[in-house]
Structure formats: structure tokens, C-alpha cells
Amino acid sequence: MYKLILIPILFFLTACSDRLVRVMPYEKEYLAQDKMKLSPVDARAEQEGHIFLIREASAGGESAFQGGCGCR
Amino acid sequence: MKKILILLFLYVNVFAAGQVGDKAMNFQLPNLYHLDKKMSFNDYKGKVVLLNVWASWCGGCKEEMPLFVKLQNEFKGSSFSILLSNIDTNSQNAVSFLKGVDSHRTLHAVYDGDKILPRAYRCIGMPSSYLIDKNGRIVDVFVGSINENTLFKLKAKIKALLRK
Amino acid sequence: MQIKNLFMFFVSLVLLELTSIASDVKDTMSFGADTYSDNANVQVYSPTFSIFKKLSNQWMVGLKMRIDAITAASISNGSNGNHVDAVTGASSNSKLFDDTRYAPTLLATYDDGDNLLSFGAYYSKEVDYDGKSLFVNYVRQLNEQNTALGIGVSQSFDKWSPIFKRNLPRDNRNEGKIDLSINQLISPILSVQAVYSHMTSQGFLSSPYHFVLQDKFAKFENYPDTRTGDAVALKGVSLLSTRNSINLSYRYYKDDWGISSHTINGEILHDVSRNFTTGLRLRYYTQTKADFVKQVGAYAVTDKYFAVDYRTSAFDSYTIGIPFIYNMRGSSKLTASVDYYQTSNNAHIKDWYGVSSIQAVFTTLTYSFDY
User: Which residue ranges make up each domain of chain C?
Assistant: First the structure.
């Protein structure tokens, strides 16, 4: 039974799928640029995460942590 | 079971990285500082070479460059050469960066805008450095930037190769 | 015994993976100044500071500090700026700011290029609220760093202590969140990300200061003491030309209070020169109301829940902004942004703040460098 669990975990940790290897490290020139980040200005992402949390009722969808406050 | 696991790890980790023991690829590429002049790897026959594939957009590549300048100066007058191979889309970005860290052009540099070398060597990381002996064989591969710790071991290997 | 041996063997193989390649973590520092100002008489000035120190090739520790100096009519009056204050004492007009919130975050990071683990603690202190949180995030790179799988968990243990004497039914506010993300490079000029978040809150979830005031009665806000929500987001960034890129994101949120929302964000970035990038961003948000929310003036004294906060009602919001990124010599960077935010007209906003909609401007300015 544990073989059935271990092998998928090993694949999760180390597996390579050729179809998902679409960009080699030496092809990442554009992806390394600021304009290619999902959130190009970190300070704005942090600040507006806080603002939208207190000005709107929704949360989530970001992978960064946001602390709570008693803001009105 | 253990044998299966070992084989699994070896398979996924060794499938393309590193060509230790392989013959280094011969190439003809333009000089980074004078693009109309060609440089050939044959010019380094009988020398110990550290071939470095790098780009100005790669943070680790920029970080190790001052160490390379220092390393080349330490082996001045010997048969050891560092050869930089830049893969920027615009070679001027590479020249601008090198002006700041290697103003005397201590390091030899070629321009590989078509990324021939990383494709041939199937580089799995940036930067990638290949230590090549006097017979043109790859004896070591460094994936990621070289730091003070790896530099210590690298110097020992270079000295050993120069003695042969 | 066999299982134990196999487990130890597996752990040793994984540890080999953990130290395979050194990452390029660096010592960095940043100083920033953020501002927020809206027509509900809230102004916030926020100096920020962060310092990250490398302990080894893979380990780094960091400290982030944010101070929010707040001027808000709702704080100085103890209730809303529009209604006559019948509950609290006089405001303290002599102070420069009505409230100052100190929020340090301490974190540690392990990064070997394929595995990124970060964990830490957050604390915030303001005049009537203490926030304490723990968080941990793990990202695993796969497929020659083309695929990144991430999991993040955070739990907060916050506490209210209102500035006037009011016995709250409960003074805690605990929030737990789990984020699962997957990031995939599609081509040298396109990458996409999907994020799923699950959030749970329990405790005192309304404001201790908000109250419903109708002809025959006044009642403090009362919300359910638990809330569970889920969000799914899809994002993508693509190069349009060597100097231009576009990023788009969409998020759907839904919770057990009956609130659901859609958020769409789009941004175009342009390299003015090799070192300077700017652009334009647009964001649209729309949400439905919570099930227990009634129209202004429609509550009955026998209702179980009372809400005056516009955030539990239905409204839209629009944001337009401009980012600035300037790469200086070496690794120094100056970033700035200015954004204008506006909600749709809303009766709850009008009732509480005396304005038809919330209009705000927020800015950031940050200088960061390696040391």
C-alpha cells in the first residue's frame, strides 16, 4: 500500500515531464524582466492587498500573506 | 524497492545535466567586443579552459563575474583561460555590464546570440560553467553561480589540470 | 521496521534534492513611503522598512516594518464622522494622528533554487486592535523550473479592545487561510498562474463602533460569528513586443454569508528606456450583498443580524493607476505607483460617511538595494 503512496510523492518531488519543460533556463531573458512579473511593483501589491481587504469584502487569490488589522 | 527508488532518482536527475567526460564542442563565434572578428575554440587547444555561459539578465551570472576576473588574474601567464560566452539578445547589454566589472577586458568573451552552446550542452541552469582540460575533455560542470566556497575547489582542480 | 527504514531512505533522498543547487539569495534593504487618502476623511501615511540578511547560501532571515499613521474621523469621534456622537467621549484633537499602527513581520527563508520555504510571524499593534499571525509558504520548482507548485498557510489570533467601554460579546477575531498555487511557463514570453484560497474566520467579525440608528431604536452591528470563503484566481503575463507586456488576472470569490465577487485586473507595461518602465493598470471589482444585509432603515428590532458597513452590501469599484520602475546602478531600484480608487454610489456609504461613494488615492514609493 505504501508503495502506491510513495511513488506518486516521488514523482511530485522530482518528476520531469517533457511537455511541461517549455522554456530552458537560457531562454528566460524576457521572463526575468520587471515588466514580465505578475506583480511588477511589490510595494503596491502589499499596500493594495491591505487596502482592498479593508475596502472590499473579498479576499484570497494571492499567494502572499497579509496581516489583519482593525481598520475601518 | 530501494533499487527502484535509486533508479527513479537517477533517471530524473541525470537525464540531461552535465557532460563530464564528453569532448568539448568546437565552435566559431564572434568576439563580444568586436563582432566582426571570429573566435574559435581550437585557439584554446592545449589550454585549460573554464567556459562560462552567461547573460546580463541573470543575477547569479553578474554576481560571479568579479570572481572570474580575480581568478584569471591569479593564473596570469599560465595556460589557463576563462572564456565567457554571452547569450543576450542585445550584445551591448553584455558589453555595458562587463565595462563595470572587467574594464581591462581581462576575460576573453564571445557572443552567442543564437544560443548554440547552451543548446548543445543542454544547460539546465544559468549560469553554467564547464571546466575543460588540455585535451578538450569536460572534467567538471558547475550549474549556478560560483561562490567563494566552490572557487576554492575549482582553483585546486585547475592547478591539478595545469600540472598534467 | 521495514517501513521506518524505507521512510528514512526516502527522507535522505529528498534531503539530497534540498541541497542540489545554491540559490542566489542576497542581502537587501528597502525604505518606502506609502500614502492613502479618501473622501471619508481617512488619511494614512506609512513609512516602511525591510532588511534581509543571508545566513548561508540557502538561508536568509528578514525583518519588515510598516507604520501606519492614521487620521480618521471615525477614530477621533469614536463613531461615524457624519452622525452625532452619542456613545463616546470627546475626540482627542490635540494629537497629530488619531491612531498609529505598528506592524513588524519576522521571517526566515530557505531557497536552494528548487525548493523555497518561508515562515514567520506578524504582529500589529494599534490603539484598539492587536493582530498576531503565523504563516508558512512552500514552493516547489519542477520541470527545469518551468512549473512551480505552492502552498501557503496562515493563521491569525487577533483581539479587539475598543477605545470606549463596551463589553463585546467576544473580543477575538481568528482567521485561517490556505493558498494553493500553480505557476507554469508556457513559452519564453508567456507565463500563467492559478491560485485557490480557502479562508475561515471566527470571533467578533463586525466593527465595535458601527451601529444601526433608526427612528425607534439603535443597535450595534452584529454579524454571524463565523465566515468561510473560497477564491479562485487565474493570471497571465505575456510579452507583446520587446518593450511592451500585458498582464491580466481574474478572481472569483464566494463565502457562506452569500457574498460573491468578481475582480478583473489588467496592466500594460512599457519600457521607456533600458532602465525605466511605466504603464497603466485598470481594475474592476463587483460584489453582491451578504444574505443578512437589509436596506438602510429597513431593520426591525427583532432582527438577529445588523449591518451598516457598506462592505457587506452590493457595490462595484474601479481602480486606475500608473506604476513606475527605475533600475539604478548595480542592483538598486526605485519603484513608485499612484492609483485612484472609486466605488459605485451606495446607500450604506451615504448613510455612514455622508458621501455617495468612496473615492481614494493611494501611492507608494520604495527604494531598494543590495548591501
Answer: 23-370
**What is the per-residue pLDDT across C78-106, written as a single tens digit (0 to 9) for each?**
445 554 433 333 334 446 778 889 999 99
Which pLDDT tens digit goes with each residue over C103-149?
999 999 999 888 999 999 999 988 888 999 999 999 999 998 899 99
The pLDDT of residue C90: 35
Whether A37 is in a domain gets the answer yes
| CB within 8 Å: C144 and B144 | no
- Which of A21, A61, A64 is the closest to C144 by Cβ? A21
- Residue ranges of chain A whose CB lies within 8 Å of a chain B CB: 3, 6-7, 10, 14-16, 24-29, 32-33
* DSSP-assigned letter for residue C306: B
Residue A66 lies in a domain: no
**Domain layout of chain B by residue ranges:** 31-163
Domain that holds residue A33: 29-53
The answer as to whether A47 is a domain residue is: yes
CATH of domain C23-370: 2.40.160.40
Output the furthest CA–CA distance in chain B (Å, rounded): 58
State whether residue C25 is helix, strand or coil: coil
DSSP letter, residue C308: -
Mutation site for A-interface testing, chosen from C366, C367, C368, C369 by largest number of A Cβ within 10 Å: C366
Gap between the Cα atoms of B91 and B39, Å rounded: 16
Question: How many distinct structural domains can be found in chain A?
Answer: 1
Spatial separation of the C-alpha atoms in residues B62 and B70, rounded to whole Å: 14
Is B124–C144 a contact, with Cβ atoms under 8 angstroms apart?
yes
Whether residue A70 and residue C131 make contact (CB cut-off 8 A), yes or no, is yes
Give the CATH architecture of domain B31-163: 3-Layer(aba) Sandwich (3.40)
ipTM here = 0.85
**Which 120-149 residues of chain C touch chain A by CB within 8 A?**
122, 124, 126, 128-129, 131, 133, 135, 137, 140, 142-147, 149
Rounded distance between C-alpha atoms, residue C313 and residue C292, angstroms: 10
Place of cell 471615525: C74
Q: Smallest CA–CA separation between C238 and chain A, in Å? A: 7
Which residues lie closer than 8 Å to C142 by C-beta, 6 or more apart? A15, A16, A20, C148, C149
Look at residues C287, C189, C179, C195 and name the one whose alpha carbon lies nearest to residue C233: C195
The span from the CA of A60 to the CA of C197, in Å, is 5
